[in-house]
Amino acid sequence: MLKTNVNGIKIAYERHGVGTPLVLIHGYPLDHTIWDLLVPLLEPGFDLILPDLRGFGESGAPTPHYSMDDFTADLIGLLDQLGIQKAAIVGHSMGGYITLAFARCHPSRLRGLGLVASQALPDPPEKKEGRYQEAEHILAHGIRDVAESMSTKLTADTVLQTKLKELMLRQRPDGLAGALRAMAERQDSTLLLPEFDFPVVLVHGLADKLIPVERARDIGDVVKKGYLIEIEGAGHMPMMEAPQVTADALKTLL
């Protein structure tokens, strides 16, 4: 992987292809490798940038209390270093929350936006409290319990469950705890949606156990230039469960 210093943190990323700049942001508690199957499908038309977020993969893991604006600042810093003024940004799950925060803070830097298995709503109080408790549990006891419980929620594919569990076990407790707190404290993005003048692509599995497809439909109903693709049989990991369908949807951001 390539590595650079952004905001005093080592940020690792991969870059592939030539064309329209497209940043693919992974979700929690994963890293950039969730997009691997999409790279050969998208690199003919896109300049693909696949970062590991702070606290994940090969990027640095500073003190475990992050915010969505911290993640956004890292992305802006990375784009600045790469000399990219405008990019399409696609986020998976938590990555979608970061993408929406980016749109709130830096709309002029966006040429398009994608949400894969994500939503615009904030956490309700009980979900927020659950994230704080999970952060404390991870710091005290490690990642294994999260990896065991989440793998079956992400997908019904047993082979993929094993792969995702192994991926989660490679992450660091500080990074997961920081991301959980950032998600708990994220803003409601629903009021932003009607203001978007750029294309918005929504990809959602109909078997998603973590975020219901209705959340994507609600976004599609209010954005000006929305494109929603619902994938039969896919859960929370469409880019791994249905890579060709997901790639074809994202190609509308060209």
Task: Outline the structure in words.
- With 254 residues, the chain is α/β, with parallel strands linked by helices.
- It has one domain (2-122, 188-253): Rossmann fold.
- The chain has 10 helices and 8 strands.
- Strands 1-2-4-3-5-6-7-8 form an 8-stranded mixed beta sheet, with helices on both faces.
- Helix 3 links the parallel strand 5 (87-92) and strand 6.
- The longest helix is centred in the middle third of the chain and has 17 residues, at 125-141.
- It is globular.
In short:
By secondary structure, the chain is of the alpha/beta class. The protein has ten helices and eight strands.
Helix content percent band: 40-55%
- Could you give me the name of the CATH homologous superfamily? Alpha/Beta hydrolase fold, catalytic domain
Q: Distance between termini?
A: 25 Å
Q: Specify the structural class.
A: alpha/beta
Mean pLDDT: 97
Integer-rounded radius of gyration? 17 Å
Order of helices and strands: EEEHEHEHEHHHHEHEHH
CATH architecture: 3-Layer(aba) Sandwich
Number of strands: 8
Low-confidence stretches: none
Would you state the CATH class?
Alpha Beta
Q: What is the global morphology?
A: globular
Largest sheet: 8 strands, mixed
Task: Give the strand content.
Answer: 15-25%
Determine the number of helices (DSSP H or I, runs of at least 4 residues): 10
Largest sheet: spatial strand order: 1-2-4-3-5-6-7-8
Q: What name does the CATH topology carry?
A: Rossmann fold
- How many domains comprise the coordinates? 1
